[in-house]
Design a protein that fits this description.
5 helices; 3 strands; elongated; three-stranded antiparallel sheet; binds fe (ii) ion; disordered N terminus
């Protein structure tokens, strides 16, 4: 008999091979109070959710997976750059710590790409891991790190 164990964002059905990853569902809790940034965060999650859908397919082409992961990575880097642009522009005092957190994510994405390019890579597993990691990372980062700039950015006229 299989037993379902809920472990944060993953459901494991022990005893068979069923693994269902939860997609991210946006709620107001994730708003940082800045329209442009909220829209970027939502788009980031949309791409990650699409990758999760993609990995559910049985006839998965490596090329499609690589394209989607590239789209996610490129968009993530563009988004992190947007925030960092405002840090510079407004001289945000918490920038160094915040940028260090962004750099952790950048490093992970680059590691996934190295794995993906390796000969004989398990591209489905890499896609699942990268999408899941991205959702976990960004949702935690918004709540614990991004929300700290809301008041500061608002005071500089960004809302
Ligand atoms: Fe951030």
């Amino acid at each position: 008999m299989s037993q379902i164990v809920k472990c944060r964002d993953l459901h494991f059905a022990i005893g068979d091979l069923l693994i269902i990853m939860d997609k991210f569902i946006w709620t107001n809790e994730y708003s940082v109070g800045i329209k442009e940034i909220d829209e970027q965060h939502q788009h980031f999650f949309e791409i990650a959710n699409r990758i999760i859908d993609l990995t559910m397919k049985t006839d998965l082409a490596q090329e499609d997976v690589a394209k989607s992961l590239e789209e996610l990575g490129n968009y993530a880097f563009y988004h992190l750059g947007t925030e960092e642009g405002y840090f510079d522009k407004f001289n945000y005092p918490d920038a160094p710590l915040h940028i260090a957190a962004h750099n952790d994510y950048r490093k992970m994405v680059n590691d996934y790409f190295v794995q993906l390019r390796a000969a004989g890579s398990d591209f489905k597993k890499i896609a699942e891991e990268m999408a899941s990691y991205s959702i976990n990372w960004l949702s935690g980062h918004i709540l614990l790190v991004d929300k700290k700039y809301t008041q500061f950015f608002n005071e500089h006229g960004l809302s």
